[in-house]
Structure formats: structure tokens, C-alpha cells
């Protein structure tokens, strides 16, 4: 599973991957991530949401997760 997660992360756009790594691997708050990437809180939240969506789409079938629409998110 770790390899699948790493592969899914590597396929994300750089900016989405960066915010996910800063938040979930490095443990920064959303506000701290925004400072590091020099974006507003709203822009940071948007990148996090899109990054999580990308991971969900890449890993969901293998994990048996519901489609994105089940989370109230659409593309």
C-alpha cells in the first residue's frame, strides 16, 4: 500500500503534492502550509481538496472507497 500511495502522490501535480506532503507528512497546519507556499488560506484549502481528490481517485478502487460524488465533491 505504501508503494501505491507514493505512486499516486507522484502522479499529482507538483503544487497538490507539495501541500499534501507539507500537511500530512511534515505535520504543518493548513495556515503554515499557506505561509510556506505563499498562498492564501482559501487557495491552500483548494489545493489540499484537489490533492485529496486526486489521491481518492487513484487509490479508491484498490481500497474499496466510494466515488468522489459520495464525498460531496465533483470535478
From TrEMBL:
Name the Gene3D superfamilies for this protein. Winged helix-like DNA-binding domain superfamily/Winged helix DNA-binding domain
Q: Which InterPro entries match?
A: RNA_pol_sigma70_r4_t2, RNA_pol_sigma_r3/r4-like, WH-like_DNA-bd_sf
RNA polymerase sigma factor 70 region 4 type domain location, by residue? Answer: 6-53
Classification via Pfam families = Sigma70_r4_2
What one GO molecular function would you report for this record?
DNA binding
Biological process terms in GO annotation:
DNA-templated transcription initiation
Instruction: Specify the protein name.
Output: RNA polymerase sigma factor 70 region 4 type 2 domain-containing protein
